[in-house]
Structure prediction request, 75 residues.
Amino acid sequence: MNGFTAVLIAPDGRLHGILSEQEAGRYLDLAPGTLRNWRTSGRGPRHVQLGRRVGYRVEDLQAWTEQRLTDGRGR
Prediction:
């Protein structure tokens, strides 16, 4: 663990904070290596570079998943 976790719940119920790569992987149910591969290829959710560490803002993970909602017919 690299000490990023500090998640706040806003009055609207949304989460805010920065998660480590491992925590973001758990949040999205993805392997951290998948996030790493996507990040190096310019895909995946937005990330924060803090020195050598990489973090993911919870609101960016939420937005990224919202953008991938489909109507069940592949659209």
